[in-house]
Amino acid sequence: MPEIQNDDPIVAKSYSGPLLIASLLLVLSLFWALWQEFVGLRPWRGYQREFASVYSKFLGKELTKQKAAADAIMSSAEYQKLAKAAKDAADAAAPQVKKIDEETAYVNRRIAALSPTFITARGEVTALIYQVEIAGSESSKKSRQADVDKAKKGPFNVELPTAEGKTEKKSFNYDELIAEFDSLKNHKAELTLKRADVRKAADEAAKAQAAYIQEKLDGLSVEQVQSLQTAVRQMSVALRQINVDKAGLVDRCQSCHVGMDPKLVPPTLQLTKASLGLEKSKDAPFTSHPQPELLKLHDPEKFGCSPCHGGNGRATNSVVKGHGRHEFWLWPLYYKENTEAGCQTCHAADMFTYHAPVLNKGRELFRQKGCIGCHRYEGFDNEGEQLLSARQKVRQLEQQKKDAELEIPRLNKAGDQAPDNKAAQDYYAKADNLRVETSVMDAQIEQLMVRARSLLREEKKVGPSLKETRMKLRKEWIYYWLENTHTFRPDTKMPQFRFKPREPRAISAFIWQMAVPGPALPKQAPGNSAKGKELFESRGCLACHSIGEGNKKMGGTFAANLSRVGEKVNYDYLVRWIMNPRQRTRPYDPIARKDLGPEDYKQYGKDFVFDLDHSRSPDGKHELQVQQQTVMPNLRLTIAEARDIASYLAAQKHADAVYQPAEFMDDPKLVEQGRALVKNYGCAGCHEIATLEEEGRIGTELTTEGSKPIERLDFSLLTEHAKRGVLPDGKPNVRDGEKNAEWYDHKGFFERKLTNTAIFDQGRVVTQLKMPQPNVTPEDVTALTTFLLGSVDPQVPKDYLYKPADQRRDIQEGWWLVTKYNCMGCHQIAVGQPSDLQGLPIYQGENKFKLPPPLLSEGARVDPNWLARFLENPAMSKTDVNRNGVRNYLAVRMPTFSFSDGEIRKIVKFFQAIASQAQPYLPPRLEPLTPQERTMARDLFTHPAAPCLKCHATGQPAHDANASAPNFLLAPERLQPAWTARWLTDPSRISPGTAMPSGLFKQEGGRWVFSGPLPPSLQGYSKDHADLLVRYMFQITPEEQRMLLGRTPAGGKSGAK
Amino acid sequence: MWGDWHQLWQIVSVPDNVPIVALLFLVPFYTWYGFREAFKHDRLIAQLEADPAMAKTHHRKPYPFKTGWERELHVWPYLMRIEFLAAVILTVLLMVWSITLNAPLEEPANPNLTMNPSKAPWYFLGLQEMLVYFDPWIAGVVMPTLIIVGLMAIPYVDANPLGNGYYTYKQRKFSIWAFLIGFLALWCVMIVIGTFIRGPGWMWFWPTQTWDHNRLDFAVNRNLHEIFGIENRWLAMGFGASVVGLFFIVAGYLMHRLCMVTEFSRKIYQRMTLLQIITLHTLLILMLSLPAKMAARLLFRIKYVLVTPWFNI
């Protein structure tokens, strides 16, 4: 290299400075990368360390506490006694145990000495035997066998220890060696058994001692706490994950939420922020699951966390990512108030899900508030769809049948012309089979027709029929109502529409003019309003309806508040409605699509008679809709009672209400405009409206609304507001202390839309949204939002979805009906779910006995066949209908719902299923009573300490005036004997607070014995007294009862003892 | 909504757009830097051309003359050490980048939902922007192919022997301008437009204008023959073809004039074969057709000039 002058700018310039700096930066960035790798991207390490320290502290405190508690228990006399017994037993067994232990040690020494030789010998011999087995030729087999024999001969020399502590030399051949080894082993096993036998008493005493502490100690035992402490000490800081391959599930939530690990925190231990001393900490994900019972139902090893809660189970590098609160994660963690949305993912077929009150409320609101009128939701109110599909199937089957009937003669003919006998027989057989198949099809068609008929009966509307408007309503009121829906009736389920000016006029004119013209209603005489009030409050109207405004409001929320009903309704119509709300003025013909009048019936020479028994069209071809599509049942009142109630209701009005005259109602020019508007606003979704009976739902389907891409939710001009966390009014959106919290998500959309349905029209010149404003509270909005958030296209495998095939399915289906007809208005059906009537002031205290019966164990109580008959006709009589079939003494009336057969079947199965009853029910055979037993039973029945007929009804009016329990004559066909026996012995367990006295019988030597002074006839009777009484009850006759009535002291008013 | 700085920050701060933000500064800087070096050398060339004696001993660096400086230096260590330093700095840069910004993964693709705006990776945004002006066959197939073919053809059509191994503007004016127009003015600018300007619906949003998904634009683009009221399909096709042909003729003539501007360029031009000349002119005219079409579309609302059943121009 030539010498270069050092002032050449390229040659002379030194780069060592920049290079040094760059290299240092490189090293620094390397360290940064390492830090990021071990700490920055793995925040769960820090959480786990923090958890370990916090939890150890907690366990330390727990240990002190439990130790103190255990010490207290141990110092009790009873424990000392147990401890002494245990020690005595151990001492007694000690000498024998010692001897056995010494012997065992000796045997063990001998086995140890023998083992090496034994193992070597066995290994060699078995390997040689294998060679014999695989040897190819006889000769080689023989030579190998010789090797085996040689190996077996040994000799095997072993030095065995003796009992004296010396050794003896022994020599064995192979078989002897095996035998010696086996005998030692057997001897050892014998000794072990013997030892257990000797120690049995001592062990049991020790167990009793330990069990005593466990029983008395509340919470974990000291040992359990200590083992947890060890577990925490040995806990390694590592990723914790649940991996369910089948579901494509990888949930690493427990990496931070360490407290959810059942191995570290047993379910009996509740870790809360308070118990861990972390109340003030904002970032401490250490609590255990707040509802461990849910984890028992949904094993986390199968379900993971994210399928229920949402969030990104795989993400571990930040809270935001793990919780999926992130633009690109489609299933973010549900906020606390919407947690139950996760249930809906799999429990979409439920109407009622345990542990999910908010979700249940959401579902109920969705149905009750009439959302379902515009928005289809899979499974909700699908009778209309089912009806269509049934009709379609019938058409298909009829076509198939026709084809088959054409095919049969063809086959027969082919058989006649067949070349040989066998082919001919084949043809004839085919033809015969087809004939049989057509008969099967006939059965199918018949069933489908029955179903279609039922469905016509099951199909209900959310709102009242508008076809009867002319007869029912005051003309001027309709217009007023449309404009002031929520002012007139603040808790109505009808939403307030945002009409443009003059639209309500056209709509009300259309409705008025489309209503059926008659036949005119009979004039009704006025009734007694005071009596009407009493009837209204006592017959059970308040289970669904409420009355009174503001603070004075009382009654259920299922149906309308009737406070101002007098302002709108026509008295004559009201009487008819109360008599039978299902009665129509004209039947609807779904095929001809019109309401039939007398003139249509006259055409066929028929009278204008239509009801559930006369539901065929006048031409006899198809079924008519002969009922109002309301769920309101028939209370079987007399006409006088109906008039009384109607008079009372007609008086419910504001005295100062003024209605403007509405002459435009008769303007025929408005009809077409009104029809277009009614169609546009989707009124026919909730109301039956002439000419619009077949209108579809106008809203978007919501079955999977929760998983709709966010881009498809139209935030309109508020999109940027939502993305930047600005409220429509320009103020920042605050959530959990975060200012400008983004609400561009499903929750934000649903909540704001439900609170103000017009919100996304804000700023629009041409408004597009027609969804009316529902009548909802903020809690309702949360419930509905929860329901909608959970309405997703499930990401979990199909078999995770809760679609049971067993009795649980009956429960699922039953809940639909029970909520559809509001059975819970009167009855308690699920534990911890009070009926609406229970809360009313008139049923408090002593009056509790006037409530309808709770149905918690109805399925076990009654014969299902009887229940079906009862549901069809609760009066249990065709003629004497103005009464309750069973509890005639109750003022509140079990109404006639006119259920379809399918509904009755489902309800009966529902009650059977929730009481875990086998289906079908076979009544057990009861042993007949001997004459002696009959005498005994009579004595018990009329025993002065518990005279049954004092309270139970007999069917004799004089006696029944004071009755407060059902007639025994109903028992044989109504009740199940096993339940009756349980009821007799402890009624308060089945129905807390019942008037039926508890403690009539006492348990004595495995049987129930009457607890009062025994009548002489029963002395020495060795069988079950309760059972005797049940058998007697199930065989009682009216004559017998009358006879007994004479022996019973007069009925008192006290009811319960 | 104007003056929406939040919107601008959102676009600029997306990890996807980091290279383009960098490009916004780096490309002008290096262009400037290249020109600075080129002018330095141009001055040196002028100096040495004026003083042949000095040229014999000059060290050929844009520094004042000094004796004893080497005219040629070895790659090792003088080049390598600089490259090594650059490699270290770049590694640091990449490390820091990869630590601070994660891969911009988005939600799983949904075949039922196209995202809006739906943008190609940044290096393809120029092509995507071209789709606004040409039909997909031209913008998506023909043009990219020609770009690649053109880049491959450069060594074969470049008849200028000067400018190897040093920066110079004077000796390579034509090539530098071709590069500046083709790469900077067309390619880079279109990437920048595609990134910062095109919002939802591929509509034109000026910086700090809110990317409003509800925005509606009213624009009618017509084909050229419709403006002239030609309705017959064949006539229209003939008309379109003539216009395109006219463009080629005019542009070819202008290109020819451009090549003849200086004595130096005439000299280079004379060194070229006919094939080289035709190739060069075709490629440059095609390159020119992009801004021409852009102008026609943006200024005159012309959709296509030539409409045929197979492709449109």
Give a quick precis of the structure.
The complex is a heterodimer of chains A (1057) and B (313). With 1057 residues, chain A is mainly α.
What does this structure look like?
The complex is a heterodimer of chains A (1057) and B (313). Chain A is mainly α and 1057 residues long. In chain A, 48% of the residues lie in helices and 4% in strands. Chain A has seven domains: 9-40; 77-227, no CATH class; 344-377 and 701-753 and 775-803, no CATH class; 383-458; 469-582 and 631-685, Cytochrome Bc1 Complex, Chain D, domain 2; 812-914, Cytochrome Bc1 Complex, Chain D, domain 2 (Orthogonal Bundle), CATH 1.10.760; 931-1047, Cytochrome c-like domain (Cytochrome Bc1 Complex, Chain D, domain 2), CATH 1.10.760. Chain B is mostly helical. Chain B contains eleven helices and no strands. Chain B has helices at 5-13, 18-50, 52-57, 75-100, 125-130, 136-157, 173-197, 224-227, 233-259, 263-271, 274-300. The two termini of chain B are 35 Å apart. The chains are: A mainly alpha (1057), B mainly alpha (313). Chain A binds chain B through residues 1-2, 4-5, 7-11, 15, 18-19, 22-23, 25-26, 29-30, 32-33, 36, 328-330, 709, 711-712, 716-717, 719-720, 724, and chain B through 1, 6, 59, 61, 63, 66, 68-70, 73-74, 78, 81-82, 84-85, 88-89, 91-92, 95-96, 99, 105-108, 110, 112-113, 115-116, 210, 212-214.
